[in-house]
Structures are given as C-alpha cells and as structure tokens.
Write a structure and sequence with these properties.
Oligomer: single chain
Strand content: 35-45%
Strand order of the largest sheet: 1-6-7-8-9
Number of strands: 9
Shape: globular
Amino acid sequence: MDALEFQVGAAKLVSYSPVRALAWRVVFEDEGVAGYCYACDGDRATVDDDFDVTVLDAMLVYNVEAMRGGEDGSRQRLATVEWSADGQRSVLRLDGVAQVLIDFDKRESFCRSNFPNFMDDGRNGWRSDDHRWNDDALLQFETQALGVTG
C-alpha cells in the first residue's frame, strides 16, 4: 500500500503495480482546483515520460472548494492506493473510504463522482463512458485482498 498525508489543494501520489512485469500505475493528483485519479500504462511513456500519453482513464475524486468548505476543510487527509496481489486491480481511498476502483484487466474504472464520462473513441479499449460506483466490484476486490475464498 502506498500512502500520502496531505492538505487539500496540493498533492501527488504515484503508485505502481506490485507485479514488476506490469507497467500499470495509479496517479492521484490535486492541482489546486480538483483532485483526480488516473489509471496509467507506463508502457505508453515516451523518453520524456509525458504523463498525458500514459493515461488510460481519469476520474474526479473531489472539488477542492467543496472539500475546503466544511468544518474540517483544512485538516490533514490521507490518500492510499491498495493493489490486488495479481497487480491488475487497485483502489484509491481518501481517509479510509474507497473513492476509485480501477480494473486494468477488464479495462474499466469506477468512482464515487461518476465523472467525467467520455464517448468511447476506441483509442485504448477502456470503458470510459460510465464510471458509476460498483459496490460489488469493491467487495470482490476486498474479498480477494483478504484471501477469502467462496
């Protein structure tokens, strides 16, 4: 598990698949306006490692203004990324609550905001027209992570 303590408004956490043969990575980034999570394929990187060319999918985690608006808006937050043992699935949690689930094998992602959704352009075979949250997919991830069998 990779973790980062941060204050809303500036943060970046990069987490790599635990399976060395897989070039998957998850990037959580807060650039001051919004916090996003990106599913990335390191094999698509150029010599300059241009971040944009590695992105397979993007999901909104939060709007900074909304996060800062509450009573605890200025408190420290904790972002964590957990991976499945096979390195094909990951979960981004914010303060312990799952916000994004990425399935690199099935080429789909889920996020609590269900945003943004794009028309499929056929570029990378990733389902990006619907990011609606899926409790069953999270339960399956957590069951596998704990080694529970049917």
